[in-house]
Fold MerR family transcriptional regulator.
Amino acid sequence: MYRIGAFSKITSLTVKALRYYDEQGLLRPSARDESGYRLYSEEDYQTARRIALLRRFGFSIAELRDVLRGSGSDDELAVYLQEKRSLLEREVRRKQAQIDALEKALASFSQQKGEDKAMEPEQKTLPALWVLSARFCGAYPEVGAHIGALYKAAKGSACGPPFSLYYDEEYREGDADIELCLPVREGTRGAKRLAGAKALSLLHIGPYDNLGPAYKRLLDTARAQGLNCLSPSREIYHKGPGMIFKGNADAYRTEIAVPVRPAE
């Protein structure tokens, strides 16, 4: 039997840690001497080795409790280690996605000064158009899934960049009211006429996930000019991803146009 000091040395677990594991019910000493000092057995040593191994791989106290309760052999322990590996791999992928998002955010900061100079809102008249359209309720990235079908239906009669109409006044998650439109020549089967409108417009250069500041600039300009913004707003995709390849998102060119009228 080993007293706690010696047991600490042979297991590379601090005395503080051993006391904590005792309190948590993970590694209780097999006995105590007449003075109440903890005494650890060979079996306790094997448990301590397992705990040290599992803590090294980031197992939480709750996970340790599960593993120690459910693994009586090395083969059973290996199953838990494989599960932990899968969890860590998923965590690595999640962290990498966060890093990628941070990289985009950092890149957008360096772009914004140049983009702000390009994003000068202007009043313009959106002409009446004949369009093929697909209206759906869903997430914003789903727009791309409908473009191919519209081009196929157009059968070569497309005559302008596709655009989306957004009927919601607010940002929505997963249930936005969207109509994707493709300008086509008059007489195209299935086409409808979209009326023109007075609008406040600006050109956004860069990824779609950085459109928020552009919308803010439009809304601020409308307020300063005494204009009311109307629905649906429009995003015109002058340059974006192709049908197969996404291309360089930093070079995407998206015109945002919001119908306006003088405030009463």
Q: What stands out?
A: Helices lie at 4-11, 15-23, 42-56, 61-70, 74-118, 143-154, 212-224. The chain is about 40% helix and 25% strand.
